[in-house]
């Protein structure tokens, strides 16, 4: 069996430069060439996982099928590679350090001094080996920026990794940012040069440099030439990566500029690679369709769209499949206006935690019920829908113990065994759970099945003793856990489309394989 090849993606100058999309696009290209690809994100944060990170700062918390709470880049990986990832594909310093300290306390180091090198770097290397097992190519994105103090152990670990598996089996890709100064009207490569010098100082000479630029100006050829010279690389190892109108063009750019290098490194017949799906996707994203719809996204983090990136991508994929243009109207959950709700073709309430903006989300669900407006509720979106229905059915004080601990009508309540854990990480209902759908339900028609699996991330559940009041308000249970104990799906009767799920179906949507709930929601909005 041929040795696994490893591609390490690092970043320089600043964070958010596009390492995640670059790593995902490299994987997409290699998969199109018939290679078995695995991928991993290594984050130097001292957090154990991403479950308690502020979404307004870090974007959404993406949940894998085995319940790992991870960085949003894993969502990019799953969408681009159309695979399902696990805990082993997300590595944070905090988790590794916690394991090292536990081992030290258990006496597993036999009295040795525990150090960053070789113990933490060794743990990082082992995590890479584990995540890459059985793959033709394993791609590793190193979070943060080269030179960050907290990331030094990861840079050292991937340097050591090249020595351990053979430098010929490793490809180092460094993504840098080249700013454009309006005052002097020129691109400045000095920050990129400094970043490359830092990387060389840590013992890594990159094989490929991705040059990110922004703005209307296209960087001249001389920018790439200059970086090649200072990086000590041939010009064909420099890939220019200006802003594109759709991220789904990036695999095509990488194939065009790095196809030969990747073919030589991995070993495949370049003529057999099939990127037709990516070409079609890029065309779809930029096609101006005759029909357009507007979906109101009722949310509280409206200043950072990355907080709902999987939801947005799921909407777009569904719209492309139905050949409609979609406009997403951000509706501030803390200032919901009936005119805003009336102006959209459909309403979507995504997941979330806490009481902020909850009244606006309940108002949105009430409006959808009363005015027969298409509605899709995800996780919290289901909970506000049943609260709205219960109030409509006569239970005027209906609420959730998450928002009102003293409510006398806890239509949504804390799961058994979860009391007291509201501020702790990794204790929720996380990952894949099965559900059984009522055979005559709208959701069963959407899925084309009665037994399905979806990902979850929540702590509160629908209190089934209030199902009569909820039904009186026009909403019925259409899916439960296999044992019938937990409500998984609800829908409205005598309504064009009001469906809500306790799950997060957006995590399983793919650009070339949209999720059926989103597809049928878009169809309803289109009508």
Question: How would you concisely characterize the structure shown here?
Answer:
The protein is an alpha/beta fold and 527 residues long. Helices cover 36% and strands 22% of the residues. A hairpin with a 5-residue loop joins strand 22 (487-492) and strand 23.
Characterize the structure shown.
The N and C termini lie far apart (54 Å). This protein is an alpha/beta fold and 527 residues long. The chain has two domains: 200 residues, Rossmann fold (3-Layer(aba) Sandwich), CATH 3.40.50.300; 240 residues, Rossmann fold (3-Layer(aba) Sandwich), CATH 3.40.50. The strands form five sheets. A nine-stranded mixed sheet has the order 13-12-14-15-23-22-21-18-19, sandwiched between helices. A seven-stranded parallel sheet has the order 5-2-6-1-7-10-11, sandwiched between helices. Strand 22 and strand 23 form a beta hairpin.
Per-chain topology:
Elements: E1 5-11, H1 19-32, E2 37-43, H2 55-58, E3 62-63, E4 69-70, H3 73-81, E5 90-92, H4 93-105, H5 116-132, E6 137-142, H6 152-165, E7 170-177, E8 180-181, E9 186-187, H7 190-201, E10 208-213, H8 221-231, E11 238-242, H9 250-267, H10 276-286, E12 292-299, H11 309-321, E13 325-332, H12 338-342, E14 346-349, H13 358-371, E15 375-378, H14 380-392, E16 399-400, E17 410-414, E18 429-437, H15 442-447, E19 451-458, E20 460-462, H16 467-472, E21 475-480, E22 487-492, E23 498-501, H17 516-526
Helix pairs in contact: 1-3, 1-9, 5-6, 11-17, 13-14
């Amino acid at each position: 069996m041929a040795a696994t090849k490893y591609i390490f993606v690092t970043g320089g100058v600043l964070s958010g430069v596009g390492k995640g999309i670059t790593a995902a696009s490299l994987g997409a290209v290699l998969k199109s060439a018939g290679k078995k690809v695995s991928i991993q994100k290594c984050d130097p944060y001292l957090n154990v996982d991403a479950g308690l990170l502020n979404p307004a700062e870090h974007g959404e918390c993406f949940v894998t099928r085995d319940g790992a709470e991870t960085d949003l880049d894993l969502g990019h990986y799953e969408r681009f590679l159309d695979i399902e990832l696990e805990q082993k594909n997300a590595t944070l310093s905090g988790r590794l350090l916690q394991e090292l300290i536990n081992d030290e306390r258990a006496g597993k180091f036999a009295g040795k001094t525990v150090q960053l090198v070789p113990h933490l770097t060794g743990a990082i290397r082992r995590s890479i080996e584990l995540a890459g097992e059985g793959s033709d190519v394993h791609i590793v994105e190193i979070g943060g920026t080269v030179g960050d103090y907290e990331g030094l152990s990861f840079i050292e670990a991937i340097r050591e990794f090249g020595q351990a598996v053979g430098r010929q089996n490793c490809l180092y890709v460094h993504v840098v940012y080249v700013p454009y100064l309006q005052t002097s009207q020129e691109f400045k490569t000095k920050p990129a040069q400094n970043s490359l010098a830092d990387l060389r100082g840590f013992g890594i000479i990159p094989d490929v440099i991705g040059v990110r630029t922004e703005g209307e100006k296209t960087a001249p050829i001389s920018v790439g030439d200059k970086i090649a010279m200072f990086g000590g690389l041939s010009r064909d190892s420099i890939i220019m990566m200006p802003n594109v109108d759709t991220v789904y063009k990036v695999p095509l750019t990488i194939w065009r500029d790095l196809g030969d290098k990747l073919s030589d490194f991995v070993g495949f017949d370049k003529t057999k690679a099939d990127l037709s799906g990516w070409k079609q996707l890029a065309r779809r994203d930029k096609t101006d369709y005759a029909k357009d719809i507007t979906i109101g996204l009722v949310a509280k983090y409206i200043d950072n769209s990355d907080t709902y990136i999987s939801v947005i991508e799921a909407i777009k994929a569904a719209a492309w499949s139905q050949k409609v243009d979609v406009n997403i109207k951000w509706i501030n959950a803390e200032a919901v206006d009936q005119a805003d709700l009336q102006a959209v073709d459909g309403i979507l309430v995504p997941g979330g935690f806490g009481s902020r903006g909850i009244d606006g989300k309940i108002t949105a669900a009430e409006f959808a019920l009363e005015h027969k407006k298409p509605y899709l509720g995800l996780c919290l979106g289901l909970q506000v829908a049943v609260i709205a229905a219960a109030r409509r059915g006569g239970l005027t004080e209906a609420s959730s113990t998450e928002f009102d601990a003293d409510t006398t009508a806890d239509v949504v309540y804390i799961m058994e065994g979860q009391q007291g854990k509201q501020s702790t990480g990794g204790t929720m209902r996380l990952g894949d759970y099965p559900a059984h759908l009522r055979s005559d339900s709208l959701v069963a028609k959407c899925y084309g099945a009665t037994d399905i699996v979806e990902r979850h991330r929540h702590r509160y559940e629908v209190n089934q003793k209030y199902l009569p009041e909820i039904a009186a308000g026009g909403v019925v249970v259409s899916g439960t856990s296999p044992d019938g104990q937990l409500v998984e799906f609800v829908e409205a009767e005598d309504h064009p489309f009001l469906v809500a799920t306790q799950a997060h179906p957006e995590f399983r949507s793919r650009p070339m394989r949209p999720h059926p709930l989103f597809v049928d929601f878009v169809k309803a909005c289109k009508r």
